[in-house]
Write a structure and sequence with these properties.
Number of helices of chain A: 8
CATH architecture of the largest domain in chain B: 3-Layer(aba) Sandwich
Radius of gyration of chain B: 31 Å
Shape of chain A: globular
Structural class of chain A: alpha/beta
CATH superfamily of the largest domain in chain B: P-loop containing nucleotide triphosphate hydrolases
Oligomer: heterodimer
Largest interface: A-B, 71 and 88 residues
Helix content of chain A: 25-40%
CATH topology of the largest domain in chain B: Rossmann fold
Distance between the termini of chain B: 87 Å
Distance between the termini of chain A: 40 Å
Number of domains of chain B: 4
Order of helices and strands of chain A: HEHEHEHHEEEHEEEEHH
Number of strands of chain B: 29
Number of helices of chain B: 20
CATH class of the largest domain in chain B: Alpha Beta
Chain lengths: 300, 637
């Protein structure tokens, strides 16, 4: 008799989900945001198909305002594991005058994240996309299915989702429809960190604290990641020891002042923290149901 | 609130994070479901568990406070129900329509809670939530005692095979923590539980609101209580995973891993048993045997793998094995059959259609299954057996199933993963039902096709023609029979061997016992399909003239025949035209309400999406239409 730990059971469940999709979908893809959840997802995908490599490409939706460390980490990972990477971006953003400083957060995320994602999914004809969403992240996600169905227009209809019993997933769909699949639905933020620590998964250095040039704006600490960052009159970057709990576009992602520079102290901070993970993201602010609205439009 | 010993303590985290993490890497996982209505305080209890385990962060708490003011039902108090409600539309309507999964953790275990709030869709949602749970917490309001709902929830819990039951007698604060009240409810429940087959349960007197006996017991208010606190019990109850390991080994093959010519591994999640390198195994249903050569994982080769693990197994022989097969202990394999009896929980707004083909998914197998009319429906409240012709949403019944090829399974009571299945509608792709197999009706290995010396090719060759089924479909009065007759006459002149099956004629004999309900219409078409198939096997060109209003059944007949032999002919006559013709006076009767389930009036007609041939009877005479059809099917040999 060998008793399995909670992480072993979560891992086995996620691997099972990855394999079901590969067995039943025609053309799957993994959405790879390069964040910690994506890093865990990639690790699980590599386990699921070992000794074969993951039999699907990675899709990164690049807004053009990603942290430079994140892009470096992405390219290194892709090279090291021999992955196929597809980059989706809105090439006309600059011409359209869309940027995180002048554009409202709703329009910005629509133009830079949601639209390029939908376009890429349609252009490549992907019928299943793995995402790193977790049910503990936000109230609206607690009821999200592991297999979430999207119409041909990539919309999510909360009234028309399928019940999921035992470990049976119904992957049948009509032409044009697609599925978003969330293999780590049942993981919590703590599980993710514990697993990263246990499995020695390499993550973007931005999660670890170090002195970085920052400004404080609307109660958020922002890192001045490159010289495109538009300073307000009188604003002067100040060096603070900061790290990130979640990674989005750098001008929209709030950092946490911290001294946690290694894995265990990060987890320690997380456990003692009093604010939830998504608070660092400007996109989630606003009405409490805003995440749901975005999901209906096709954002993850 | 006291700091509970079992929840994580900030002190340990702050002092020695390494020790804390080490301890937490060895936690186990328990999945449970909470059952009860909103009034039983279920959401409050879950809210408290999340709160006590620090799973509510301050920003969520702030949002909760503002939400409580806007939508709450607790006045100025925090409404924990809002914490466990999710979707905006539901919140506006004040109802929850689904299963939500919540997470919390203690020093000993991680917990996944399936929360299924009570209202009319309850059966469906509770069955979904219970399907993955190892334990059920059944909440009872101490003021009200056992209700109809308590009985229904308990029976569903038992039906879904949950072995651990906790009776949480809640709101003890509102009955003055009275021991006699608690004891009376427990005694009531004990006799009921025995009746339905729940052998044991643990009863805990609690107050979700005040926190009594949640994390530590006995609380100062219940000195008379000698059992564990709710959390203590949840932390120590044996998880089903251990029991699964003691059963014989099975692994449904999910995917064949073949990165190069030297490696061929079978990937899957082990639902039961233990497997070791060198073990003899049998592939079911083929029955071929082999030996485990290696158990391959990303973290290295294993000597042994157990229930609950996802692994990749390779065998010493090049045996046929692919997705849907089950690799099992050679000496104790599961059975395979194409007929079995099962309990079915209907989950879709469109009721069960006996005789229609549905996708059935069990383990990694997907087959076509037809359901016989239910033997009976079970009243979820009284558990009485009721006569039933179909099953509506949220109904539970027992029925016999036939599949188009043998599937490998075990009775649900023995193995949840190999005994539970879902049914999928072939057109909407919706998951319409959950089923639990009771027993096999026959062993597929006893049933063989009797090989015949004269093949269908021989029959067709003698008649110098290619067999076909010309399937005329369209509204009543569209001209199906007239045109089919004309086609047959012309084929006859061409010396072809034909036979015309006409709807009205068949109902005088073969299908005399069938009426016009949806279920009977499906059976009507199924029988006609089988007869047409036999005639095609005999080499005939078969013409059928049936309204055959549903796509699913026309598709079913198409699937029975070799590719290219089913020719769907849509006799496309608009309803107004057919109704004007009204040769048999049926439309008039239907409009007058004297005829029920009449296609086009009060029963739908689903036109073919891509028929092989479409004829327009408004612009063509029957003779022209017949000539057109024959031109389309030439050459006949």
């Amino acid at each position: 008799m060998r008793s399995l730990t909670h992480l072993e059971r979560l891992e086995a469940e996620s691997i099972h989900i990855f394999r079901e999709v590969v067995a039943e979908a025609e053309n799957p893809v993994m959405l790879y945001s390069v964040g910690k959840d994506s890093s865990v997802m990639l690790h699980l995908a590599r386990k699921a198909f070992y000794p074969a490599p993951p039999p699907f490409p990675m899709l990164h939706v690049a807004s053009g305002w990603d942290f430079s460390d994140l892009i470096t980490h992405r390219d290194k990972t892709v090279r090291e594991y021999g992955l196929r990477l597809i980059i989706a971006e809105n090439e006309e953003a600059e011409a359209q005058g869309i940027n995180p400083f002048d554009t409202g957060s709703a329009l910005y995320s629509q133009a830079q994240l949601t639209d390029p994602l939908k376009r890429a999914l349609t252009a490549h004809g992907f019928d299943a996309a793995f995402g790193g969403g977790r049910r503990d992240e936000e109230k609206a996600r607690a009821k999200e299915r592991i297999f979430s169905f999207r119409t041909a227009a990539h919309r999510w209809d909360p009234k028309n989702q399928r019940p999921e019993l035992w470990n049976l997933y119904n992957a049948k769909k009509s032409k044009g429809e697609s599925i978003r699949v969330f293999p780590i639905s049942n993981w919590t933020e703590l599980d993710i960190w514990q697993y990263i620590a246990l499995e020695n998964i390499e993550i973007v250095p931005l999660y670890f604290s170090k002195p970085r040039p920052t400004v404080e704006r609307d109660g958020m600490i922002l890192v001045v990641d490159d010289d495109r960052f538009r300073l307000e009159p009188g604003e002067e970057p100040e060096t603070r020891s900061v790290r990130f709990r979640t990674l989005g576009c750098y001008p929209l992602t709030g950092a946490t002042v911290s001294d946690a520079a290694d894995m265990n102290t990060i987890i320690q901070e997380m456990l003692l923290a009093t604010s939830s993970e998504r608070q660092g993201r400007a996109i989630d602010k606003g009405q409490s149901a805003s995440m749901e609205d975005k999901k209906q439009e096709g954002y993850f | 609130m006291d700091t509970p010993s079992s929840f994580q303590t900030d002190a340990l985290i702050a002092e020695d994070i390494d020790a804390y993490l080490h301890a937490h890497q060895h936690k186990s996982l328990l999945r449970f479901i909470t059952c009860g209505s909103v009034d039983d305080g279920k959401s409050t209890l879950i809210g408290r568990l999340l709160y006590d385990s620090k799973m509510i962060f301050e920003d969520q708490l702030a949002a909760l406070e503002s939400d409580s003011k806007r939508h709450g039902t607790q006045g100025e108090e925090i409404d924990f129900a809002l914490l466990v409600d999710g979707l905006a539309a539901e919140r506006e309507q004040g109802i929850t329509i689904d299963v939500a999964y919540r997470f919390f953790t203690t020093e000993k275990r991680k917990f996944i809670v399936a929360d299924t709030p009570g209202h009319e869709q309850y059966t469906r949602n509770m069955v979904t939530g219970a399907s993955t749970a190892d334990l059920a917490v059944i909440l009872v309001d101490a003021r009200k005692g056992m209700l109809q709902q308590t009985r229904r929830h308990s029976w569903l819990v038992h039906l879904l095979g949950i072995r651990h039951v906790v009776l949480a007698v809640n709101k003890m604060d509102l009955v003055g923590y009275d021991q006699a009240t608690f004891d009376a409810i427990v005694a009531d429940y004990r006799s009921f539980a025995k009746d339905i087959g729940i052998e044991q349960f643990t009863a805990v007197p609690i107050s979700g609101f005040k926190g009594d006996n949640i994390t530590a017991a006995p609380s100062a208010n219940t000195p008379w209580y000698e059992g564990p606190a709710l959390i203590q019990h949840l932390e120590t109850v044996e998880v089903d995973n251990a029991a699964a390991q003691a059963q014989p080994f099975r692994m449904p093959v999910q995917w064949v891993n073949r990165p190069n010519l030297d490696f061929r591994g079978f990937a899957g999640l082990i639902p039961s048993g233990t497997v070791r390198v060198g073990d003899p195994v049998r592939i079911v249903p083929s029955g071929k045997t082999s030996t485990v050569k290696a158990i391959t994982t990303f973290d290295g080769e294993l000597q042994e793998a157990v229930a609950g693990q996802s692994v990749t197994i390779s065998l010493t022989d090049e045996v046929d094995c692919s997705r849907g097969d089950v690799i099992a202990a050679a000496g104790d394999p599961p059975q395979a059959s194409d007929q079995f009896s099962a309990t079915l929980v209907w989950m879709d707004e469109e009721a069960l259609k006996p005789g229609r083909g549905y996708w059935l998914k069990l383990g990694t197998q997907t087959v076509t299954a037809t359901v016989q009319p239910p033997k009976y429906e079970i009243d979820v409240n009284s558990r009485e057996h009721l006569a039933a012709k179909t099953l509506e949403m949220n109904a539970i019944g027992v029925a016999e199933f036939a599949t188009d090829k043998p599937i490998t399974f075990e009775p649900y009571a023995d193995n949840r993963q190999l005994g539970g299945f879902i049914l999928i509608d072939k057109f909407t792709n919706a998951t319409v039902a959950a089923g639990m197999i009771a027993f096999s009706l026959r062993r597929a290995d006893n049933v063989h096709w009797q090989p015949t010396a004269i093949t269908r090719e021989d029959h067709a060759g003698m008649k110098n023609q290619t067999p076909r089924v010309l399937w005329f479909t369209g509204l009543s009065g569209s001209g199906k029979s007239t045109i089919a007759n004309e086609v047959e006459k012309q084929l006859n002149l061409m010396n072809r061997h034909t036979f015309l099956l006409d709807g009205d004629n068949v109902r005088h004999g073969l299908n005399r016992d069938l009426g016009f309900t949806e279920a009977d219409r499906i059976e009507n078409i199924r029988r006609v399909g089988e007869v047409a198939k036999l005639m095609a096997d005999a080499g005939l060109i078969v013409l059928t003239a049936f309204i055959s209003p549903f796509r699913a059944e026309r598709r079913m007949v198409r699937d029975m025949l070799p590719e290219g032999e089913f020719i769907e002919i849509f006799v496309d006559t608009p309803l107004e035209v057919a109704e004007t013709r009204d040769v048999k006076g049926l439309y008039k009767k239907a409009r007058a309400g004297q005829l029920k389930n009449f296609t086009g009036i009060d029963s739908p007609y689903e036109p073919p999406e891509s028929p092989e041939i479409r004829v327009n009877t408004v612009d063509m005479t029957p003779q022209e239409a017949a000539r057109f059809i024959i031109q389309q099917i030439l050459p006949l040999k």
